[in-house]
Amino acid sequence: MAKRGGDDEMVAGAESLRQFTRLSRLLRARDHSKGLNPAQWEALRYLAIANRFSNTPGAMARYLGATKGTTSQTVLSLEKKGLVSKQAKSGDQRQTGLALTDTGLAILKGDALAAFADDIEALKPKMRRRFSRAVSDLLASEIGRLEEPSFGVCNSCRYFREVGNGEASHCMKFSASLSSADEMLICVEHVAR
Ligand code: SF4
Q1: 149 occurs within a structural domain
Q2: Which residues line ligand 1 (CB under 6 A)?
Q3: How far is the CA of 185 from the centre of ligand 1 (A)?
Q4: Sheet containing 160-161: which strands, arranged edge to edge?
Q5: Is residue 134 situated within a structural domain?
Q6: CA 13 – CA 35 distance, rounded (Å)
C-alpha cells in the first residue's frame, strides 16, 4: 500500500507540473496585448514593484531570469514607446535608474493578468494561504538552485531595522531611510533573516 501511495503522489506531482507549465504558457500568451510582447509586460510589472536600489537593467535581468542583452533591448523598446524613462542614479553616474512614465503606469492598469489575480483573490482563504505557501516554497527552491537573489521585501530582510517612535525605518545595507511605501517594494539586495 505504501508503494501505491508513493506512486500516486508521483503521478499527482507530474500532473501538477503539467498543469503549472500549461498555466504559465497560457498566461504568457495573454501578454501579447496593447502592442507589447511578454518580455515588455514583465519589465513594466517589475518596475512597478522594484525599489529604488533595484530599478536597474542588471537587477531587472536577474529578476526575470533574462540575459543583460535581452533586457537592454526590452528597455530600449519600452523607452521608444514612451513607457519607461532612464536617468543616471544620483551618486553614481555610471548606473542607470529606470522609471515608469505616466503612460507606462496607465498601460499597466490594463494588465491582462489582472483577471488571474482576481481568480487568486476569489479562492477560499485557507486555499489561498496554502496556494501562496506552495508557490513560495517552489520559487524558493528554484531560486536556491540557481543561486539568484530572493527579491523579497524589507520586513523579512536581515538589513532592515525598525526605528520606532513614528520615525522612518532604516536599511543597514544602503544606510538609507525607508518610508512605509519603500518597505512594500522588492529589492535585489534582500537577504532573508
Ligand atoms: S532592508 Fe533589505 S530589502 Fe530593504 S532596502 Fe535594505 S537591503 Fe533592500
Answers
A1: yes
A2: 51, 53, 154, 157, 159-160, 171, 173-174, 187, 189-190
A3: 9
A4: 160-161, 169-171, 176-178
A5: yes
A6: 37
Per residue, the 3-state secondary structure of 70-89, as one string, reads HHHHHHHHHHHCCCEEEEEE
Whether 11 is covered by a domain: the verdict is: no
**Number of compact structural domains in the chain:** 1
Q: What is the pTM of this model?
A: 0.91
12-71 pLDDT per residue, tens: 889 999 999 999 999 999 999 999 999 999 999 999 999 999 999 999 999 999 999 999
In the reported structure, the alpha carbon of residue 189 is separated from the centroid of ligand 1 by a whole-number distance in angstroms of 6
Can you tell me which atom of ligand 1 is nearest the CA of 54? 8
**Residue 128 structural domain:** 123-193
* 182 Cα to the center of ligand 1, angstroms: 9
Residue 161 lies in a domain: yes
